[in-house]
Each structure stands twice: as structure tokens, then as C-alpha cells.
Amino acid sequence: MWKRAIRWLALCVVVSIVMFLAAHSRAFAPPDGRPGAGDAPGNDKEQPVPAAKDVKVAPSRIAAVTVYPNSALVTREVEVPEGAGTLELTVTPLPPTVVNSSLYSEGTTGIRVLTTRFRSRPVLEDTRADVRKLQDELKQLQLARDKLEAEIRAVQSNGQTTSKLEGFMGVTTVQATEKGVLNSEAAIALAKHIRESRLETARELVTLQQQVQVNQERAEFAQRRLSELTSGTIRTERDAVLVVEKNNAAAGKVRLHYLVDTVSWRPQYKFRAGKTAREAVQVEYLAAVTQHTGEDWSSVKLTLSTAEPTLNSAPPELQTLEVTVAPKAGAPVARLPDTMELEEAVKSLRSKAQKNFNEKKRSSGVGLVNTAAAHEQSWELFNPEAALKRGCLLAAREGATVTYHLGTRLSVPSRNTEQVLEVARLELAPDYYYKAVPILTTHVYRQADLINKSEHVLLPGEATMYIGTDFVGRMDLPLVAIGEEFTAGFGVDPQLQVEREMLDKQKSQQGGNQVLKYEYRILVSSYKSKPVKVQVWDRLPKTEQETVNVTVLKATPEVCADPVYMRQQKPHNLLRWDLTVEPNMRGEKAKEIHYEFKVELDRQMTIGGFQSK
């Protein structure tokens, strides 16, 4: 009887092996069992559009780029082959963000450019190297995923076979036990084999599932990158076709220029003060460039400009400024626009006008620039006092146009994120002092007066401030001309403290007026080991009405006599004291500022409120 049981067990093992091989072969077969069935004619896949004929491309490279606030002018050097006569050169691919009408070319010695035109043509596949690389990566990932899924199906089939073998073993073991013919050694060996097979199957299944997860994450990341590169584009190749005339047979070069959108730049700064007052302040002048044009700029001469690109060679025509009038009675009161709003509107109109000129839309460009000028002219006619004070053109506040030629060749790839480039490094001698404005904050700030002795205009932008390697904060840097003095802030100094308090208030009558008298004290405490210069600021109420008078009665110490302060801030009732605070002046020894002022107004009047302006 035991021989019969062993034969049954052996038969079960053979059956399980046959079932495993059958399942494994099915897992790797095509869906319908026939090789290549998925590629048979008549499926629902979209048929590709035939590509255009092969185009003979002239070798070219990007040599220089001028980056403007919202665009860039790209210069390509195009190689002209040997041979005299008239030649047609094709430069491809141009980026999808190219301004079609902006193309123009320049010849060189012995080579004259006859025409330059833009052409687009359909292509079967995106020919950009980075796009093709991502597409190939996605194909390989899909093949790897198909293989992993097939292996998972095979492992799952093996697990099912093991389960069937376990069930069969249970039945045969019960029957053999009832008949008294159970071979315990064979049953234990088979049970051990089933257990090990189940563990191995589980481990293999988990490993394959983890590989599928990693594959899926890589495929999703590659798909996102591909979507970024191909967003808003179609399978169209953009070419520049140049017709040149050569007087000699030698090879040469011509220059192709074109404008691209989706480019911008803005200034950034890093100010690094030394640990001691004698060390120079190091300034890193940086440019944050965003370029998502679709083509990489590799080892190019880069220029940064604050101007708008100008491709029109003649000035726009001046149009008539018409005036409309209406009777005063019943006429609605027109709301004059805020000056800042008007400045932004004028700037936007001029920018759009220049873009239209560059795109050869001259008629709309002329209309836009005349509309912007009409806004400016109406502002100056309605606000003659302001126009006389600051100049007629609202755009005058923007400052001069500046251009920076970066000294070394740089590479700027096309991507969504900002890329920071170095424009210049400066060393400026500081004049340190501390500034306290106790009515606004109890903190005391370290500041330095600097003079821009470099050859660069410093444009408005965000500056990151350091003392040594320690980050201390950020500030907005204004426009600083060459040779101009400006102030940089280097954060709060906890070794200096300031407090402000009211000591007394009195109200009295003087003739037909009421008099309000106030007395204040400001205390500056120092925990530093060296004397420091401190500026302390405060303010008094101010009114343009003659019926109210504000007067400083006394101030100890005296208010600052700096000529610039006396001319610009003091007329607005801003108070400033320049102090030298000795070491360890705190508590009873704290530096004291004491001042009194009075407000006189008619006793029939009352103060309605205060607001900052």
C-alpha cells in the first residue's frame, strides 16, 4: 500500500510541473497566441502623417544671446559651404517660441545675404534631442513593465499550482491514514517542499511588485518632463531659409538673428559684511534668468539688457490728439486715475507697441504708442504742478537703460526654473552706524552707507544680507547710479535696545486757541564693548491747514543739523538725532533723548484723527 501512495505523490509532482510550464509559456505569449498579432493591419491605432522630404541642413551654433526683460535676441553663426555663386541654406530647428517675423541675417566678407525667410513644415517625430531621449526612455520603461507584469502572472500561477498540490496532498494523506498506509517521511518532505515554494513565491512576488512600482514612478516622472518640453507645441519643424551670394569659393559664415519669447531676467544681490568695521562689504551682483524657449544656450556670449528689443528702423508716426468737451451742468465728474496705475498702463502699452513693431504689425503698434503718449499728455495737462516738478513723461521714473556684457561664455539650458548667473563682484568701503525708530519697532538695526564706485548701475532688486557667513535678512535695493551713495541694512543688533515713553500731557487756553502740550523721552541702552553711532528717528503731527500749528518747544540733545535731513525730512516734521553711545550705557546710564512739543488750534475745533501719509 505504501508503494501505491508514493506513486500517487510522484504523479502529483509531475502534474504540478506540467501545469507550471504551461502557465509560464502562456504568460509570455502574445495576447491571442500568435506572434505579432498586435501589429496586424486594421487596428485602431492612429496612422502617422507622412513626414516632409529630407531637408539639407546648414550647420550652425548659437554664438550670442541678448536677454531683455521679457524676450531675448539669439544670434546663430551659420556655416556656408565652399563654392561660388548663389546658395540656399536651411537652419533648423528653430525653437517653438521664435517670433516668426523677427528673423534677419548679416553677411560677412565675400558673402552677401539676399533673403531671409521663415518656414514651417510637418515632421513625423519631434527631432529635439532631449525630447527624443525622453521618448526612448519611456519606450524602454514600457517594455520593462510588460516583462515584469508577465513574470508576476507566472509567479501567481505557480502559487496557484502550489495551493492545488497542497489540497491534493491533504486529501491523499487523509486517505492513506485511514487505510494505514501513510508514508510519514514522504509526506513531511512534500509538506516542506510546499512551504519553501510558498515562501519563495511570496518573496519573488513582492520583489516584482516593488520593481513595478519603481518603474511606474520613473515613467510618470519622464512623462511629466516630456509634457513640459512639448507643452503647447505640435510636430512642426521651424526653419530659417537663407539665400546667399558668394564671390569666392572659400567656406565662410553668416549670422542669423531672431527673437524668442518666454525669456526674462531680474537682478539679485548678496551683500556680505565683515566681522569688523574695517573690512569691505562684498557685493555679488547676480541675475536670475528664466529661459523656456525650447533650445539650450551652450557656451554663448551673454548680454543682459533692461531695454525693449527694437527692430523698427524708423520712428512711429505722430497722430492727432483730439479734445472733447461737455457742459459743466450735469456732467459726471471723471475720476482721475492714480499715478501709479497710470504708469503701469503706459508701460504696458509701450511694451505691447514695441512687440507689434517687432512682429511687423506696424499699424497697431503706432496706435498703441500714440495711446500711451495720450495718457501721458493728459496727465501732464491735468497735473501741471506735478509735471513741472518731476518732468512730463511718466516713464522718466524708470531710470536709464543699462546693458551688462558678461565676461565669460555661459551655458543656459532651457527649463522652467530660474538660473542664477553672476554679473559682477564688488568691494565697497562701509561707513557703519545703527538706526532706531522706536515708534515703529523696538529693534535697532545695523546699517552701512556705501558708494557705488563700480562701473555698473545697480538695478532695483532683492538683496540677501550676510555678516560673514551668517544670514541676517533681506532688503529691497533701489536703483543706484554709478558714484551714488546708498544705504544697506545688515539686520537687528540685540546688543542695542531702545524704548520710547510719554512723560506728560497738558491742555490749556491761550486767547482764542487751545494748546496741547506733550513731553516724551527716548532711552537708548548699549551692551556693546565699543562706542557706536546711532541714529534715532521720531515724528510730530503735521497738517497743511493754517488753523493748526505744531511747534517743538525743546529737544535735548538738539535735533540733527545734517543739510540733507534739514532739506528733505525736517519739513515733514520727522525728527532725527545723531548720537554716540558709549559702551555699557544701560539702566540709569542709558542715553536719554528728551523733547517737548505743542499743538495749537482754535478752541472751537477738535482733532478728528491721525493717519500716516
Could you characterize what this model shows?
This protein is α+β, with helices and mostly antiparallel strands and 613 residues long. It has four domains: 2-30 and 135-230, Topoisomerase I, Chain A, domain 4; 60-124 and 235-260; 263-320 and 337-398, no CATH class; 496-602, Immunoglobulin-like, CATH 2.60.40. It has seven helices and 24 strands. The chain has helices at residues 2-27, 129-179, 184-230, 339-358, 362-382, 384-390, 563-568; strands at 60-67, 72-80, 85-91, 104-106, 111-122, 236-246, 252-260, 263-273, 281-291, 297-305, 403-405, 410-412, 419-428, 431-436, 444-451, 461-467, 470-477, 485-492, 496-510, 513-526, 532-539, 548-556, 574-581, 591-602. The strands form five sheets. Strands 1, 2, 4, 7, 10, 11 and 12 form a seven-stranded mixed β-sheet that branches. A hairpin with a 4-residue loop joins β1 (60-67) and β2 (72-80). α1 (2-27) packs antiparallel against α2 (129-179), α4 (339-358) packs antiparallel against α5 and α5 (362-382) crosses α6. The model is unreliable at 1-6 and 20-53 (pLDDT under 50).
